[in-house]
Give the backbone structure.
Amino acid sequence: MPDNHLTDNKFLVVIAGPTASGKTRLAADVAGKYNAEVFSADSRQIYREMNIGTARPSMDEMTGIPHHFIGEASIFDSWSTGRYIQNLSERLSDYFTSHEVAVLSGGTGLYIKALLEGLDNFPAISESTKTLVREKFAGSGISYLKEELLIRDPVYYEMADTDNPRRLIRALEVCLEAGVPYSSFFGTATKSRPLFTPVMILLEWPREELYCRINERVDRMMAQGLLEEASDLLPYRGFPALDTVGYRELFDYLEGKTNFNTAVSLIRQNTRRYAKRQMTWFRKYGDWTVFHPEAKEDIFRHIEE
């Protein structure tokens, strides 16, 4: 983040929560009330090719309010947490010269943590370590990655997307290279002086209600044409951005590895598991005030206080 001086009357309302928790609607409501714009903290909604499967907000849902980092990049681009933070920090720096309130909304906890705390200082990975992990993965599959990570870093294992080999490979590389858990590097960032005062809001539903919302969302995505979207993207399934719940299950169906009903059932199941991991992350990182998503008057009162 640019090393600007702290401006006491600049506020970033951070709205976080698991998938299907209602972040999009609340962000638009908050932005509308305080004449603000919305900045997305979603690592997948930034890709223009991934529309239905990421539940990207529609024009109606955005209610005419400018939304940043929504469909701005391509799956063909090289996009990382560092690049996102650099772009977001520069954009917020310009934005706060003429606005008092901004809204940051999304479910990618690492993005939010990196903005507020800076990027953690992970070690460089040697080519020998990279080769070792990738050869083990090629020979033994994702089960090797899961077993090794559970042994070497059970803390991160509990919050990781354990169906995402790219994330597991990265964490295991750090464990092997440094000889200490991947999670031990969390909080090692060098903090710069903030541009704003954060107002931290975490949305939380009772578990069964959230799971019902997730199931309904998956059904809605399928009705909107998620299968057709996945079919169009199938030639690019090896791209990191597409290693995402909703796409990888349908890719397997399209390649004849499973049947349709099983694929849809797995999307529901894996999305619920992902939501659980998101909440584990948010409870561990961040000074949040927790609200039921429908308690909007309480949320507005909290922001103003």
Observations:
- Residues 1-6 have pLDDT under 50 and may be disordered.
- The first helix runs from residue 23 to 33.
- The longest strand covers residues 197-203.
- DSSP finds 13 helices and six strands in the chain.
